[in-house]
């Protein structure tokens, strides 16, 4: 496909106008970007760095400040859509940073999915936290609904069909509901990464003195799930923890 293979990350970025990183966490991003051999030291001036990792809002803001010191444009651009969205190039891309920098790289992001500029640096991560809260809370509600159907004597699969097109219908209901019924927890999005994001959301809410009781409870359920050794399973495996609570 025309790619050039190099030995070190800093070699990959040295002559690049646009650099995209998608790594597992804030500390890993910091190590890659800000360490002694960090990418910010190796990148060209006026290049654009796009961080597509799900990291804390404050981490993105701090990285943007460090990038500015090196005259590098910074965008935080986490994504949603799962593995299939990446394969299909249909990811939801939530972008924070300078609007001019966003416009300059929008054609690149459009090849990956649907980018939307949300606001200044950190805003993309804030939108991703909102996304992950909605995803986690909806997974928990779908799991409870399936348990209710099972225990109440209804056919859960037929229930999902009956709900299609109604207000309760959603991608999570259709896809993850089937995963739960079939107990197919091959990970698209591992539960451990869902927990990382819900914990990040709760920590950020604390800095704003917000009380989010529903999200707080769902975060606790994911903590229990991971503590039980199911962190590598798909996040729809949350139904396992609800079943344990009801044993």
In terms of DSSP E residues, the strand content is 5-15%
Q: Whole-Å distance between the termini?
A: 53 Å
Count of separate DSSP helical elements = 12
Structural class: alpha/beta
The gross shape turns out to be elongated
Calculate Rg over CA atoms. 20 Å
Query: Can you count the beta strands?
Result: 6
User: In terms of per-residue confidence, which ranges show pLDDT below 50 for 5 or more consecutive residues?
Assistant: none
Order of helices and strands: HEHHEHEEHEHEHHHHHH
The quaternary structure here is: single chain
Give the averaged pLDDT, no decimals.
95
The description of the largest β-sheet is: 6 strands, mixed
- Residues in helix, %: 55-70%
Please give a handful of descriptors for the protein shown:
247 residues, alpha/beta, 6-stranded mixed beta sheet, 11% strand, HIBADH-like_NADP-bd, oxidoreductase, NAD(P)-bd_dom_sf
